[in-house]
Protein backbone atom coordinates (compact mmCIF):
# COMPACT_ATOMS: atom_id res chain seq x y z
CA UNK A 1 0.00 0.00 0.00
CA UNK A 2 1.37 3.40 -0.98
CA UNK A 3 1.43 6.06 1.71
CA UNK A 4 0.95 9.77 1.16
CA UNK A 5 3.59 12.30 2.13
CA UNK A 6 1.47 13.26 5.14
CA UNK A 7 1.31 9.62 6.27
CA UNK A 8 5.08 9.22 5.94
CA UNK A 9 5.57 12.43 7.89
CA UNK A 10 3.26 11.13 10.63
CA UNK A 11 5.29 7.92 10.82
CA UNK A 12 8.54 9.87 11.07
CA UNK A 13 7.05 12.19 13.71
CA UNK A 14 6.14 9.14 15.77
CA UNK A 15 9.72 7.80 15.88
CA UNK A 16 11.41 8.21 19.29
CA UNK A 17 14.31 10.35 18.04
CA UNK A 18 16.43 11.75 20.83
CA UNK A 19 19.55 13.03 19.14
CA UNK A 20 20.33 15.02 16.03
CA UNK A 21 20.48 12.83 12.92
CA UNK A 22 22.02 14.06 9.71
CA UNK A 23 20.85 12.54 6.43
CA UNK A 24 22.75 13.30 3.24
CA UNK A 25 21.29 13.23 -0.26
CA UNK A 26 23.52 13.10 -3.36
CA UNK A 27 21.19 14.17 -6.10
CA UNK A 28 20.23 17.64 -7.29
CA UNK A 29 16.75 16.32 -8.09
CA UNK A 30 16.39 15.10 -4.50
CA UNK A 31 17.55 18.43 -3.13
CA UNK A 32 15.09 20.26 -5.36
CA UNK A 33 12.15 18.09 -4.21
CA UNK A 34 13.18 18.35 -0.54
CA UNK A 35 13.51 22.13 -0.72
CA UNK A 36 10.50 22.88 -2.88
CA UNK A 37 8.22 20.59 -0.84
CA UNK A 38 9.43 22.23 2.37
CA UNK A 39 10.45 18.90 3.90
CA UNK A 40 13.13 20.47 6.12
CA UNK A 41 10.60 22.47 8.08
CA UNK A 42 8.02 19.65 8.09
CA UNK A 43 10.36 17.09 9.66
CA UNK A 44 11.11 16.84 13.39
CA UNK A 45 13.80 19.25 14.55
CA UNK A 46 16.20 16.39 15.29
CA UNK A 47 16.54 15.64 11.58
CA UNK A 48 18.97 17.59 9.44
CA UNK A 49 18.90 17.10 5.67
CA UNK A 50 22.23 17.79 4.04
CA UNK A 51 22.65 18.34 0.29
CA UNK A 52 25.78 16.50 -0.87
CA UNK A 53 27.63 15.98 -4.16
CA UNK A 54 24.59 15.88 -6.42
CA UNK A 55 25.25 18.48 -9.08
CA UNK A 56 27.46 17.47 -12.03
CA UNK A 57 27.89 21.03 -13.29
CA UNK A 58 29.06 22.07 -9.82
CA UNK A 59 31.83 19.46 -9.68
CA UNK A 60 33.05 19.90 -13.26
CA UNK A 61 36.62 21.18 -12.78
CA UNK A 62 37.29 24.79 -13.62
CA UNK A 63 40.06 23.77 -16.03
CA UNK A 64 37.60 21.82 -18.19
CA UNK A 65 35.27 24.80 -18.50
CA UNK A 66 38.29 27.01 -19.27
CA UNK A 67 39.43 24.55 -21.96
CA UNK A 68 36.00 24.55 -23.58
CA UNK A 69 35.98 28.36 -23.61
CA UNK A 70 39.46 28.57 -25.14
CA UNK A 71 38.68 25.96 -27.80
CA UNK A 72 35.52 27.79 -28.78
CA UNK A 73 37.31 31.13 -28.90
CA UNK A 74 40.44 30.15 -30.78
CA UNK A 75 39.62 27.15 -32.99
CA UNK A 76 37.29 27.11 -36.00
CA UNK A 77 34.90 24.72 -34.29
CA UNK A 78 31.31 24.54 -33.14
CA UNK A 79 31.18 23.83 -29.43
CA UNK A 80 28.01 22.24 -28.08
CA UNK A 81 27.21 21.79 -24.39
CA UNK A 82 24.30 21.23 -22.08
CA UNK A 83 22.65 24.58 -21.35
CA UNK A 84 23.63 24.88 -17.67
CA UNK A 85 27.32 24.80 -18.54
CA UNK A 86 27.17 28.01 -20.56
CA UNK A 87 26.84 30.31 -17.56
CA UNK A 88 29.49 28.68 -15.34
CA UNK A 89 32.20 31.27 -14.64
CA UNK A 90 35.93 30.55 -14.58
CA UNK A 91 38.50 32.38 -12.51
CA UNK A 92 40.18 34.78 -14.94
CA UNK A 93 41.38 38.35 -14.69
CA UNK A 94 38.82 41.14 -14.98
CA UNK A 95 38.05 41.89 -18.61
CA UNK A 96 38.85 38.34 -19.81
CA UNK A 97 36.10 36.07 -21.07
CA UNK A 98 34.83 34.08 -18.11
CA UNK A 99 32.07 31.81 -19.42
CA UNK A 100 30.89 30.05 -22.55
CA UNK A 101 28.03 32.55 -22.69
CA UNK A 102 30.51 35.43 -22.82
CA UNK A 103 32.56 33.58 -25.46
CA UNK A 104 29.39 33.16 -27.52
CA UNK A 105 28.65 36.86 -27.20
CA UNK A 106 32.21 37.51 -28.39
CA UNK A 107 31.54 35.56 -31.58
CA UNK A 108 32.42 31.96 -30.77
CA UNK A 109 30.07 29.38 -32.28
CA UNK A 110 28.65 27.83 -29.11
CA UNK A 111 25.31 26.08 -29.10
CA UNK A 112 23.34 24.81 -26.13
CA UNK A 113 21.92 21.33 -26.56
CA UNK A 114 19.57 19.17 -24.54
CA UNK A 115 20.72 15.71 -25.70
CA UNK A 116 23.58 13.92 -27.50
CA UNK A 117 21.24 13.41 -30.47
CA UNK A 118 21.34 17.18 -31.01
CA UNK A 119 25.15 17.10 -31.05
CA UNK A 120 25.04 14.42 -33.76
CA UNK A 121 22.50 16.41 -35.76
CA UNK A 122 24.60 19.59 -35.58
CA UNK A 123 27.67 17.61 -36.72
CA UNK A 124 25.70 16.16 -39.67
CA UNK A 125 24.45 19.59 -40.69
CA UNK A 126 27.99 21.05 -40.53
CA UNK A 127 30.05 18.34 -42.19
CA UNK A 128 32.87 20.74 -43.08
CA UNK A 129 33.46 21.80 -39.47
CA UNK A 130 34.68 20.09 -36.32
CA UNK A 131 32.00 19.90 -33.64
CA UNK A 132 33.21 19.47 -30.06
CA UNK A 133 30.68 18.18 -27.55
CA UNK A 134 31.61 19.37 -24.05
CA UNK A 135 29.91 16.59 -22.10
CA UNK A 136 29.87 17.12 -18.35
CA UNK A 137 27.61 14.99 -16.19
CA UNK A 138 27.11 12.13 -13.78
CA UNK A 139 26.28 8.55 -14.79
CA UNK A 140 22.77 9.39 -15.97
CA UNK A 141 23.98 12.08 -18.38
CA UNK A 142 27.13 10.25 -19.43
CA UNK A 143 25.29 7.03 -20.33
CA UNK A 144 23.58 8.64 -23.38
CA UNK A 145 26.99 10.00 -24.45
CA UNK A 146 28.38 6.45 -24.28
CA UNK A 147 25.37 5.22 -26.29
CA UNK A 148 25.92 7.94 -28.88
CA UNK A 149 29.55 6.93 -29.34
CA UNK A 150 28.82 3.20 -29.40
CA UNK A 151 26.17 3.64 -32.06
CA UNK A 152 28.50 5.65 -34.29
CA UNK A 153 28.92 9.38 -34.75
CA UNK A 154 29.90 11.56 -37.72
CA UNK A 155 33.65 11.86 -38.38
CA UNK A 156 33.61 15.56 -37.48
CA UNK A 157 32.20 15.08 -33.96
CA UNK A 158 34.53 14.77 -30.98
CA UNK A 159 33.92 14.81 -27.25
CA UNK A 160 35.46 16.83 -24.43
CA UNK A 161 34.35 14.47 -21.71
CA UNK A 162 33.98 15.52 -18.09
CA UNK A 163 31.88 12.65 -16.79
CA UNK A 164 31.87 11.70 -13.11
CA UNK A 165 30.63 8.84 -10.94
CA UNK A 166 28.74 9.76 -7.79
CA UNK A 167 29.56 6.92 -5.39
CA UNK A 168 33.35 7.64 -5.15
CA UNK A 169 32.63 11.11 -3.74
CA UNK A 170 30.46 9.57 -1.03
CA UNK A 171 33.15 6.92 -0.43
CA UNK A 172 35.72 9.70 -0.01
CA UNK A 173 33.50 11.43 2.56
CA UNK A 174 32.88 8.20 4.44
CA UNK A 175 36.60 7.37 4.47
CA UNK A 176 37.36 10.76 6.02
CA UNK A 177 37.52 11.35 9.77
CA UNK A 178 34.37 13.47 9.82
CA UNK A 179 31.91 12.37 7.12
CA UNK A 180 29.33 14.77 8.57
CA UNK A 181 26.24 12.59 8.23
CA UNK A 182 24.64 9.52 9.84
CA UNK A 183 22.63 8.07 6.96
CA UNK A 184 22.42 8.27 3.19
CA UNK A 185 19.58 8.75 0.73
CA UNK A 186 21.07 7.33 -2.48
CA UNK A 187 20.23 8.70 -5.93
CA UNK A 188 17.42 6.88 -7.72
CA UNK A 189 18.34 7.74 -11.28
CA UNK A 190 21.99 6.76 -10.84
CA UNK A 191 20.85 3.46 -9.30
CA UNK A 192 18.55 2.92 -12.27
CA UNK A 193 21.57 2.97 -14.57
CA UNK A 194 24.34 1.47 -12.45
CA UNK A 195 22.29 -0.72 -10.10
CA UNK A 196 21.50 -0.09 -6.42
CA UNK A 197 24.28 -2.54 -5.43
CA UNK A 198 26.79 0.25 -6.11
CA UNK A 199 25.70 1.75 -2.77
CA UNK A 200 26.05 -1.45 -0.78
CA UNK A 201 29.49 -0.31 0.45
CA UNK A 202 27.79 2.35 2.57
CA UNK A 203 26.07 -0.36 4.58
CA UNK A 204 28.73 -3.07 4.49
CA UNK A 205 31.95 -1.12 4.87
CA UNK A 206 30.72 1.88 6.85
CA UNK A 207 27.80 0.32 8.76
CA UNK A 208 25.65 3.28 7.78
CA UNK A 209 21.95 3.00 6.82
CA UNK A 210 21.16 3.78 3.21
CA UNK A 211 18.05 3.86 1.06
CA UNK A 212 17.58 4.57 -2.64
CA UNK A 213 14.87 7.16 -3.27
CA UNK A 214 12.92 8.55 -6.19
CA UNK A 215 12.03 12.18 -6.65
CA UNK A 216 8.59 12.50 -5.12
CA UNK A 217 8.27 13.68 -1.51
CA UNK A 218 6.63 10.31 -0.76
CA UNK A 219 9.63 8.32 -2.01
CA UNK A 220 12.10 10.61 -0.26
CA UNK A 221 10.18 10.40 3.02
CA UNK A 222 9.96 6.61 2.70
CA UNK A 223 13.75 6.50 2.34
CA UNK A 224 14.20 8.83 5.32
CA UNK A 225 11.85 6.72 7.42
CA UNK A 226 13.81 3.60 6.43
CA UNK A 227 17.21 4.98 7.43
CA UNK A 228 15.83 6.48 10.67
CA UNK A 229 14.32 3.14 11.67
CA UNK A 230 17.55 1.38 10.82
CA UNK A 231 19.41 3.79 13.10
CA UNK A 232 16.90 3.34 15.93
CA UNK A 233 16.76 -0.45 15.64
CA UNK A 234 20.46 -1.02 15.04
CA UNK A 235 19.85 -2.57 11.65
CA UNK A 236 21.85 -1.86 8.51
CA UNK A 237 20.67 -2.62 4.99
CA UNK A 238 20.35 -0.92 1.63
CA UNK A 239 16.64 -0.26 1.14
CA UNK A 240 15.16 0.33 -2.30
CA UNK A 241 12.38 2.90 -1.90
CA UNK A 242 12.10 3.42 -5.67
CA UNK A 243 11.33 -0.16 -6.77
CA UNK A 244 9.08 0.93 -9.62
CA UNK A 245 12.18 2.15 -11.49
CA UNK A 246 15.31 0.83 -9.75
CA UNK A 247 16.07 -2.82 -10.45
CA UNK A 248 18.82 -5.12 -9.24
CA UNK A 249 21.76 -4.84 -11.63
CA UNK A 250 20.62 -1.52 -13.09
CA UNK A 251 20.44 -1.07 -16.84
CA UNK A 252 22.69 -3.67 -18.54
CA UNK A 253 22.42 -1.96 -21.93
CA UNK A 254 23.74 1.34 -20.56
CA UNK A 255 26.49 -0.50 -18.72
CA UNK A 256 27.53 -2.25 -21.95
CA UNK A 257 27.76 1.14 -23.67
CA UNK A 258 30.00 2.39 -20.86
CA UNK A 259 32.21 -0.70 -21.05
CA UNK A 260 32.53 -0.37 -24.81
CA UNK A 261 33.43 3.31 -24.95
CA UNK A 262 34.91 4.52 -21.65
CA UNK A 263 37.42 3.73 -18.92
CA UNK A 264 37.05 4.70 -15.28
CA UNK A 265 39.92 6.88 -14.09
CA UNK A 266 40.94 9.09 -11.17
CA UNK A 267 39.40 12.51 -11.75
CA UNK A 268 39.56 16.05 -10.43
CA UNK A 269 36.43 17.52 -8.82
CA UNK A 270 36.06 21.28 -8.74
CA UNK A 271 37.57 22.63 -5.54
CA UNK A 272 37.69 19.16 -4.01
CA UNK A 273 40.69 17.57 -5.72
CA UNK A 274 41.30 14.19 -7.29
CA UNK A 275 38.95 11.39 -6.25
CA UNK A 276 40.06 7.86 -7.18
CA UNK A 277 38.02 6.01 -9.82
CA UNK A 278 35.51 8.84 -10.09
CA UNK A 279 35.79 9.89 -13.74
CA UNK A 280 34.88 8.60 -17.17
CA UNK A 281 37.46 8.87 -19.95
CA UNK A 282 37.13 7.78 -23.58
CA UNK A 283 38.89 4.43 -23.98
CA UNK A 284 41.50 3.38 -26.54
CA UNK A 285 38.85 2.53 -29.15
CA UNK A 286 37.56 6.12 -29.15
CA UNK A 287 40.79 8.12 -29.04
CA UNK A 288 40.00 9.61 -32.44
CA UNK A 289 36.88 11.13 -30.86
CA UNK A 290 38.74 12.58 -27.88
CA UNK A 291 38.93 16.38 -28.10
CA UNK A 292 41.60 16.39 -25.38
CA UNK A 293 43.93 14.52 -27.75
CA UNK A 294 42.75 16.38 -30.82
CA UNK A 295 43.71 19.75 -29.28
CA UNK A 296 46.61 18.84 -26.95
CA UNK A 297 47.95 22.36 -26.38
CA UNK A 298 44.62 23.44 -24.83
CA UNK A 299 44.64 20.35 -22.64
CA UNK A 300 48.16 21.19 -21.39
CA UNK A 301 47.32 24.81 -20.60
CA UNK A 302 44.04 24.02 -18.90
CA UNK A 303 45.51 21.20 -16.76
CA UNK A 304 47.89 23.75 -15.23
CA UNK A 305 44.84 25.56 -13.85
CA UNK A 306 43.70 22.61 -11.72
CA UNK A 307 42.42 23.81 -8.36
CA UNK A 308 41.38 27.28 -9.52
CA UNK A 309 38.38 28.73 -7.68
CA UNK A 310 36.97 32.28 -7.74
CA UNK A 311 37.87 34.23 -4.57
CA UNK A 312 35.26 33.76 -1.84
CA UNK A 313 33.63 30.79 -3.54
CA UNK A 314 32.63 28.06 -1.10
CA UNK A 315 31.12 25.73 -3.70
CA UNK A 316 33.39 22.82 -2.74
CA UNK A 317 32.19 23.00 0.87
CA UNK A 318 28.57 23.14 -0.29
CA UNK A 319 29.09 20.19 -2.66
CA UNK A 320 30.60 18.09 0.14
CA UNK A 321 27.82 19.01 2.57
CA UNK A 322 30.22 20.79 4.93
CA UNK A 323 28.15 23.97 4.88
CA UNK A 324 24.66 24.89 3.78
CA UNK A 325 24.39 27.11 0.70
CA UNK A 326 23.44 30.21 2.70
CA UNK A 327 26.53 29.74 4.89
CA UNK A 328 28.75 30.63 1.93
CA UNK A 329 30.29 34.01 2.63
CA UNK A 330 28.98 35.52 -0.59
CA UNK A 331 25.57 33.82 -0.94
CA UNK A 332 23.04 36.45 -1.97
CA UNK A 333 25.70 39.16 -1.85
CA UNK A 334 28.34 38.87 -4.57
CA UNK A 335 26.76 35.61 -5.77
CA UNK A 336 23.17 35.47 -7.06
CA UNK A 337 21.58 33.66 -10.02
CA UNK A 338 21.78 36.90 -11.99
CA UNK A 339 25.48 37.26 -11.27
CA UNK A 340 26.79 33.84 -10.23
CA UNK A 341 30.28 33.40 -8.84
CA UNK A 342 30.15 29.63 -8.53
CA UNK A 343 28.40 26.87 -10.49
CA UNK A 344 26.19 25.92 -7.53
CA UNK A 345 24.30 29.16 -8.20
CA UNK A 346 24.10 28.43 -11.95
CA UNK A 347 22.84 24.91 -12.33
CA UNK A 348 19.25 23.85 -11.71
CA UNK A 349 20.81 21.00 -9.73
CA UNK A 350 23.07 23.29 -7.68
CA UNK A 351 22.13 23.59 -4.03
CA UNK A 352 22.64 27.37 -3.97
CA UNK A 353 20.39 27.88 -6.99
CA UNK A 354 17.73 25.60 -5.52
CA UNK A 355 17.79 27.35 -2.15
CA UNK A 356 17.66 30.75 -3.84
CA UNK A 357 14.71 29.61 -6.01
CA UNK A 358 12.85 28.53 -2.89
CA UNK A 359 13.17 32.03 -1.42
CA UNK A 360 16.19 31.65 0.89
CA UNK A 361 17.87 35.03 0.62
CA UNK A 362 20.39 34.98 3.46
FE1 LIG B 1 29.45 28.97 -4.76
FE2 LIG B 1 27.95 31.18 -5.00
FE3 LIG B 1 27.02 29.08 -3.69
FE4 LIG B 1 28.95 30.53 -2.66
S1 LIG B 1 26.87 31.19 -3.05
S2 LIG B 1 28.86 28.32 -2.69
S3 LIG B 1 30.09 31.07 -4.51
S4 LIG B 1 27.55 29.21 -5.87
Automatic annotation (TrEMBL):
Signal peptide: none annotated. The keyword Cytoplasm does not apply. The keyword Cell inner membrane does not apply. GO terms for biological process: protein maturation. It comes from the Bacteria. Keywords: Iron, Metal-binding. GO terms for molecular function: 4 iron, 4 sulfur cluster binding; carbon monoxide binding; iron ion binding. InterPro entries: Hyd_form_HypD, HypD_1, HypD_2_sf. Belongs to the HypD family. This is Hydrogenase maturation factor. It comes from Sulfurirhabdus autotrophica.
